[in-house]
């Protein structure tokens, strides 16, 4: 309840600045665009180059407002970095630690076991600095956004193994900023985006533009590429054990399929002499 | 079936020694090896065994998860994420447990539907059936409280909505709600007691499952014909016949379960539960887990006052009533014939009931507005009419097909090539 009392900031509700209530059906106005991700499907794996570019986009363009407080620097080894590279990355950040022997809190350089520090000291500061809408944490964003697929599509999704709703949504939102169509009124401080999940406009202005982040692997420095890369990176951040999961799953399925086949033959021979 | 028919012969010296002191090996042998089961059980009858395995899966994964989980609103969400990221195979344990709950319900709904289709609840199996409904209720309570533990947005708001039901009862409602919550709103005391109860209830389920199996072994199983076992030729020993069939069905069930764990682990959950609980931000749609959706639709279908009962209380009563009616099902069905195979009209209404229940589930996921409300009302009406009108009346007016004289006759008639489950009237009585 402390949290409840402390953050009476009515603005916490203001994530949706759009005139429409979050209850009204029909948002997002446009369905998310579907990208052909490397990590889709039962054998999909992350593209490490893409994850590294995505990390760069996060660090240079997003991390000024968005925290990612469940992700530790050490886990970025999955992206193909060496320990020394990660130590150097962590050294760019200051984290609060303490209390020391004198009872004082102090700041120190981040080490591998630290998580990405938040850009704001607390939720209230984050909301205050951002027009009332605290920027969401990025650690789980790719699993925390799902645009309804409707019947019967959601049944087909079981068979096609569709798990990419989150990254498709993030990609679509980042590339979806546009001028509002005639007749649509956008409140002050809001920005029209037909891909936004909870209204016609959101508090965040278009966060990234062409050539804002420099790539050193020759990939195009476009909003489209940035959006793809950071979405892939956020999928990794939300589900770092995805590749291990799919590999384990493949072996489990093979084992169970063989086991079930043997049981089927056993069952046939057991019942062969018995009408049932 | 009981020990007086026991065929157990201890061979070793130790076997004889223990058999005259604590005949546990004899009990296991009599219950799972020599226990006679009808020879014509089909795959619908394998879900009892599957449910036992699912209960054990949930217990084992749950006990290990509890070693890493912290029931404190300040850190519950992070502790779950720590399991997902840092605990060895923690992601596997958690996905097994979360999807395991869903598959537990898949299996239990099939198990219940099988019981209804083949009239398994009829005399002398009323107590067996009622114990099953008690297990269902305990499962629902356990699943609901388990969903609160990750302390995501749906955890918090689901708990708020569901405990709010109790305020509909005049007088006693608010004290009950406050007892459940440990305060006036969902907060740390709520999380702590839900965690405690979520750990306790599965062991209560285990206890009732033991009673359920005991009652089953007293009456024996039903079978697709609904005709009781009459002679030894009607049955086969549990092992190897039922064992191997159950094992095959289980491995196929686990295959589907594994597909969800490893390739669709979040499909059955709600994305909003990956957002930490925020008492100031209500999600656009508060929906329970899929297995509660039909009951949620019934709750929201009552939008009108009935005399002194306002719509809120009416909805809550309808929702609780939709489970409570199952307790009296054995006495609502007036037909002497058990199996739907021989009841053409009941068969039709049964499948309508199944379709209606799935439709209610779909409605439960939709907002309670527009066309969805009248549709939910019609569906709710059919749900209750099935139990309270159709079952009592149908038993009196329906003409059932001719029943086979015995399970053996039915099996051999099917073999003789008339294909249908109903044997020809003139099928000859033959050797076993």
UniProtKB/TrEMBL annotation, chain A:
<keyword id="KW-0732">Signal</keyword>
<dbReference type="Pfam" id="PF02167">
    <property type="entry name" value="Cytochrom_C1"/>
</dbReference>
<keyword id="KW-0812">Transmembrane</keyword>
<dbReference type="InterPro" id="IPR036909">
    <property type="entry name" value="Cyt_c-like_dom_sf"/>
</dbReference>
<keyword id="KW-0472">Membrane</keyword>
<feature type="signal peptide">
    <location>
        <begin position="1"/>
        <end position="24"/>
    </location>
</feature>
<dbReference type="InterPro" id="IPR009056">
    <property type="entry name" value="Cyt_c-like_dom"/>
</dbReference>
<keyword id="KW-0349">Heme</keyword>
<feature type="transmembrane region" description="Helical">
    <location>
        <begin position="248"/>
        <end position="266"/>
    </location>
</feature>
<feature type="domain" description="Cytochrome c">
    <location>
        <begin position="49"/>
        <end position="238"/>
    </location>
</feature>
<dbReference type="InterPro" id="IPR002326">
    <property type="entry name" value="Cyt_c1"/>
</dbReference>
<keyword id="KW-0479">Metal-binding</keyword>
<protein>
    <recommendedName>
        <fullName>Cytochrome c1</fullName>
    </recommendedName>
</protein>
<keyword id="KW-1133">Transmembrane helix</keyword>
<keyword id="KW-0408">Iron</keyword>
TrEMBL record, chain B:
<keyword id="KW-1133">Transmembrane helix</keyword>
<dbReference type="InterPro" id="IPR005798">
    <property type="entry name" value="Cyt_b/b6_C"/>
</dbReference>
<protein>
    <recommendedName>
        <fullName>Cytochrome b</fullName>
    </recommendedName>
</protein>
<feature type="transmembrane region" description="Helical">
    <location>
        <begin position="194"/>
        <end position="215"/>
    </location>
</feature>
<comment type="subunit">
    <text>The main subunits of complex b-c1 are: cytochrome b, cytochrome c1 and the Rieske protein.</text>
</comment>
<feature type="domain" description="Cytochrome b/b6 N-terminal region profile">
    <location>
        <begin position="14"/>
        <end position="225"/>
    </location>
</feature>
<comment type="function">
    <text>Component of the ubiquinol-cytochrome c reductase complex (complex III or cytochrome b-c1 complex), which is a respiratory chain that generates an electrochemical potential coupled to ATP synthesis.</text>
</comment>
<dbReference type="InterPro" id="IPR027387">
    <property type="entry name" value="Cytb/b6-like_sf"/>
</dbReference>
<dbReference type="InterPro" id="IPR005797">
    <property type="entry name" value="Cyt_b/b6_N"/>
</dbReference>
<comment type="similarity">
    <text>Belongs to the cytochrome b family.</text>
</comment>
<feature type="transmembrane region" description="Helical">
    <location>
        <begin position="127"/>
        <end position="148"/>
    </location>
</feature>
<feature type="transmembrane region" description="Helical">
    <location>
        <begin position="91"/>
        <end position="115"/>
    </location>
</feature>
<feature type="transmembrane region" description="Helical">
    <location>
        <begin position="344"/>
        <end position="363"/>
    </location>
</feature>
<keyword id="KW-0249">Electron transport</keyword>
<feature type="transmembrane region" description="Helical">
    <location>
        <begin position="313"/>
        <end position="332"/>
    </location>
</feature>
<dbReference type="InterPro" id="IPR036150">
    <property type="entry name" value="Cyt_b/b6_C_sf"/>
</dbReference>
<feature type="domain" description="Cytochrome b/b6 C-terminal region profile">
    <location>
        <begin position="228"/>
        <end position="405"/>
    </location>
</feature>
<keyword id="KW-0679">Respiratory chain</keyword>
<feature type="transmembrane region" description="Helical">
    <location>
        <begin position="154"/>
        <end position="173"/>
    </location>
</feature>
<dbReference type="InterPro" id="IPR016174">
    <property type="entry name" value="Di-haem_cyt_TM"/>
</dbReference>
<keyword id="KW-0479">Metal-binding</keyword>
<feature type="transmembrane region" description="Helical">
    <location>
        <begin position="43"/>
        <end position="71"/>
    </location>
</feature>
């Amino acid at each position: 309840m402390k949290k409840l009392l402390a953050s009476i900031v009515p603005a916490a509700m203001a994530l949706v600045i759009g005139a429409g209530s979050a209850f009204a059906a029909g948002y997002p106005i446009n369905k998310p665009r579907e990208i052909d991700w490397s990590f889709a499907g039962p054998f999909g794996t992350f593209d490490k180059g893409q994850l590294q570019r995505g990390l760069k986009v996060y660090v240079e363009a997003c991390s000024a407002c968005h925290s990612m407080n469940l992700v530790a620097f050490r886990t970025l080894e999955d992206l193909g970095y060496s320990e020394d590279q990660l130590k150097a990355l962590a050294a760019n950040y200051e984290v609060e630690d303490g209390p020391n022997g004198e009872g004082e809190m102090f700041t120190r350089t981040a080490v591998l076991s630290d998580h990405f520090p938040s850009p704001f000291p607390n939720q209230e500061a984050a909301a205050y600095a951002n027009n009332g809408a605290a920027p969401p944490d990025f650690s789980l964003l790719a699993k925390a956004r799902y645009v309804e697929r409707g019947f019967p599509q959601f049944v087909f999704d079981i068979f096609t193994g569709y798990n990419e709703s989150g990254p498709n949504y993030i990609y679509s939102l980042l590339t979806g900023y546009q001028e509002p169509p005639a007749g649509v009124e956008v409140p002050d401080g809001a920005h029209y985006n037909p891909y936004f999940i909870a209204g016609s406009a959101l508090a965040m202005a278009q966060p990234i533009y062409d050539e804002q982040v420099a790539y050193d692997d020759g990939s195009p420095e476009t909003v489209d590429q940035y959006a793809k890369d950071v979405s892939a990176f956020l999928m990794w951040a939300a589900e770092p054990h995805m590749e291990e999961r799919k590999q384990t799953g493949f072996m489990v399925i093979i084992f169970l399929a063989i086991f079930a086949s043997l049981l089927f033959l056993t069952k046939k021979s057991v019942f062969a002499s018995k009408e049932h | 079936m009981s020990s007086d028919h026991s065929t157990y012969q201890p061979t070793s010296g130790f076997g004889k020694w223990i058999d005259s002191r604590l005949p546990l090996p004899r009990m296991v042998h009599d219950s799972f090896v020599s226990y006679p089961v009808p020879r014509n059980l089909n795959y619908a009858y394998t879900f009892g065994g599957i449910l036992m395995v699912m209960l054990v899966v949930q217990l084992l994964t749950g006990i290990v998860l509890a070693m890493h989980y912290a029931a404190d609103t300040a850190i519950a969400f992070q502790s779950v994420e720590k399991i997902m990221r840092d605990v060895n195979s923690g992601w596997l344990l958690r996905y097994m447990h979360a999807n395991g709950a869903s598959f537990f319900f898949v299996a239990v709904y099939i198990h219940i539907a099988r019981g209804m289709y083949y009239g398994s609840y009829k005399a002398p199996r009323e107590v067996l059936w009622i114990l099953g409904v008690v297990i269902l209720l305990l499962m629902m309570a356990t699943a609901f409280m388990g969903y609160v533990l990750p302390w995501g947005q749906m955890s918090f708001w689901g708990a708020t909505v569901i405990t709010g039901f109790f305020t509909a009862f005049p007088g006693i409602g608010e004290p009950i709600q406050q007892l459940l919550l440990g305060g006036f709103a969902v907060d740390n005391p709520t999380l702590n007691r839900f965690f405690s109860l979520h750990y306790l209830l599965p062991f209560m389920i285990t206890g009732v499952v033991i009673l359920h199996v005991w009652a089953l072994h007293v009456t024996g199983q039903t079978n697709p014909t609904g005709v009781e076992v009459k002679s030894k030729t009607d049955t086969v020993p549990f092992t190897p016949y039922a064992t191997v069939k159950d094992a095959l069905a289980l491995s196929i069930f686990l295959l589907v379960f594994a597909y969800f764990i490893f390739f669709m682990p979040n499909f059955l959950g709600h994305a909003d539960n990956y957002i930490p609980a925020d008492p100031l931000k209500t999600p656009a749609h508060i929906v329970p887990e899929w297995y509660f959706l039909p009951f949620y639709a019934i709750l929201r279908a009552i939008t009108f006052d009935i005399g002194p009962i306002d719509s809120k209380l009416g909805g809550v009563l309808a929702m609780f009533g939709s489970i409570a009616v199952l307790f009296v099902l054995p006495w609502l069905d007036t037909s002497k014939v058990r199996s739907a195979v021989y009841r053409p009209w009941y068969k039709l209404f049964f499948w309508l009931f199944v379709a209606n229940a799935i439709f209610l589930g779909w409605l439960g996921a939709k907002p309670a507005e527009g066309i969805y409300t009248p549709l939910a009302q019609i569906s709710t009406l059919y749900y209750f009419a099935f139990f309270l009108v159709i079952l009592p009346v149908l038993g009196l007016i329906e003409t059932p097909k001719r029943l086979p004289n015995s399970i053996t006759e039915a099996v051999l008639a099917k073999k003789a090539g008339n294909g249908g489950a109903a044997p020809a009237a003139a099928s000859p009585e033959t050797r076993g």
